[in-house]
Diacylglycerol O-acyltransferase
Amino acid sequence: MPVTESMFLVAETRDQPMHVGGLQLFAPREGQTAEALADEFSERFHAATDIAPMFLKRPATPAQVAGYTAWTEDDDVDFDYHIRHIILPRPGEIKDLLRYVSQNHGALLDRRRPMWEIHIIEGLKDGRVALYSKVHHSVVDGVTALRLLQRSLSTDPADRSGTAFWDMELVRRRRRRHAANKTDRSWLDRVTGAASAVVDTAGQVVGMAPAAARVATAGVFDKDYVAPLQMAPSTILNQSIGSARRFAAQDWPVERLRAVARYQHMTINDVIIAMCAGALRSYLTDQGGLPDESLIAMVPVSLHSEGDSDGNAVTAMSVRMATDLESPAERVAAIKASTAGAKNVIRGLKPLQSLALGAATIWPLAFATVPGFVEYTPRGFNLIISNVPGPETPLYWNGARLDGCYPVSIPMEGLAMNITVTTIGGKAGFGIIGARAQLPSLQRILVHLETALSELEDLPPAS
Amino acid sequence: MPVTESMFLVAETRDQPMHVGGLQLFAPREGQTAEALADEFSERFHAATDIAPMFLKRPATPAQVAGYTAWTEDDDVDFDYHIRHIILPRPGEIKDLLRYVSQNHGALLDRRRPMWEIHIIEGLKDGRVALYSKVHHSVVDGVTALRLLQRSLSTDPADRSGTAFWDMELVRRRRRRHAANKTDRSWLDRVTGAASAVVDTAGQVVGMAPAAARVATAGVFDKDYVAPLQMAPSTILNQSIGSARRFAAQDWPVERLRAVARYQHMTINDVIIAMCAGALRSYLTDQGGLPDESLIAMVPVSLHSEGDSDGNAVTAMSVRMATDLESPAERVAAIKASTAGAKNVIRGLKPLQSLALGAATIWPLAFATVPGFVEYTPRGFNLIISNVPGPETPLYWNGARLDGCYPVSIPMEGLAMNITVTTIGGKAGFGIIGARAQLPSLQRILVHLETALSELEDLPPAS
């Protein structure tokens, strides 16, 4: 087992589970009830017994004390354990769904079996059906699991070959396509290629943590290297955490973000950071803990370039969020300056140097599992904000349209909140996961995000 | 924090969660829907914000590495986290309910908050509503939590004062009754007193484990002491376990067990052991692992005597289950001899000596958290079987009749299965909890229990 996988097992504690999640909402096809769609998911999933090897593997030595030296593969998977099906209680509002995800995201995965679960969730009064999936970060080798997830969807609403993301058939379908036309990339790779690389970023950068000190040392002696280390202020986002989680999620039309980006001469990514900055400023003020200095966000960035088949060249930039500034206009200017500066540094670096830059930015994570450590050490940033752009085209599972997609990421010791945004089919889905006891009223962030976006829309166009 | 509480925190690992559970089924009152009853539970529970201190406390130092030296109390409880409400998917059979309990019983409780949860479960096609509760063993000080649970029920079907088991009002009601009539015990204490003492047994005896070696040493040098140590055979029940669970539960009419007891001149407790012996013999044969020698069960026994207000005088007896004998008649004779012999030993001992006996019987538990230990060490018994007799009178919550009550106990390293039986309102509810990966097809035990009981019923009366 490579260290890039085992470190997620080593770093895991009962307060810091190392699984990532995804929450997806599907609208039943014309004439189909939510009940029928949920049963269809359940039947197809239970029928997908030819399982891709990555969803069969588990650590050979599950006890925490043992070294993680090898994976082993189970012969089959106990679907009664891995596939869960529940109905939400009335009234079946989105907040009931988010409560369910909150309650379940804190529970550790069993290491004695393949480390993933999928929950089929009915009972939403809007008639949609949700899938909540949970996969251990050591199991998904970079982008592969997310690619499989997307491969289980189709751009064709008439396609009825929908199956589970672990189905070997998906792997075979892809191989057939590649064999048929070696030079042409499949429609899905064309559509999702860039997105996948950025998805990968979030995983890889977090993944770098334990190796960070080593890489950082290399960076410091390289004269081309520009050290990004700055001190982030102390906030409630940077506490020691418990295992209980609180999850908030909401959509905004990408078109609203794009309009702001156009008028303010900034990127969609900058708009997302500006929304988060406004929202976090309000949230921390509510909680009586807005620091005098600006929050610092760590933002994963893809180094993927056109025609580059390797999606793993990634780094992170350290962005001053300007939460110390009351004026939205001044915040926008400061964020633009901060991300532009950071990007210029990255553009001037070779891939390996960029990786070292990212590693140095996140080096305090290397010590995150030492209890109490986070309370007393300086830190380079306050939270991780990831933006995972996906395809604009609508996607379908057996004719049911994917109508919302929200990442459920990993809070860590000293990093009690994580914001991950995915844009898919014209919607920007914000997934905000936090340590429950440490971050009260987390769902207020959603209201503050809307307020922050409205303020950005009200700004006069940039000259 | 006394060691009798902290040891449950110290002994806990991700593979060996130390919480106990209870599954209760309620039949809605005349004219009430399951939906209305579930909502009534939810409303009353959410309204019970005056919380008894034990349901507010949590370890002051939650990290596993720290010593557990103190409890601290939270000011309030985040009901959105502790109270969960779900609906089972169709068809809503009992097996769907058991699957839900199985999936949830393996998840650790968060130590950063009061360590309990309650799940309100709808969707059973038989129209009943289930409550599944989970409380950490370090939090329930012996019998108190179970007494509170029973105190939230009434013998009067017209009583509409039903509330949550954590409601301080229950404590106050009881104090008022005691103040009004100091010499007369309340109806509930009269009804449940003896039962509670035996309930306590299970907790206390398991609880003794880490101190066992010490007590056992004292016992060995006491010349009145009769050492019960015997070697139990090696079986699949005695493996190192994972965190995933499998729960099976079913009722039998107490009258059937009582008839067998009467005809065979044995106790109800002996009948339960004989049923388990027959069922385990069949189960282990199915699994290809029936040992040549008999399984040994550890059976908690109450030393509670009339007029004794202290419910904590408990011990355990080691019972030869005679699983090596094919003939049900021979098994019954061997079990009767084994329990009669064990009881004679206990009767001749003073309470402290009995405690030492119980401790010696279970001493290998003291080492159960050392990884791999269980695979290589001799053991004194194969599983714990507890019988918790409750009141014969029907009990109600706001007019909804308690229609089934199944304990969900704790599998441990080397003790992959636990059987706990509770008799209440004329039904004997068997709760069988096992480590999921280690005990496949656990639910087959239910069929085997019925077969075993039928075989006992077919025996000629004892002379």
Observations:
- The longest strand of chain A covers residues 19-27.
- The first helix of chain A runs from residue 3 to 10.
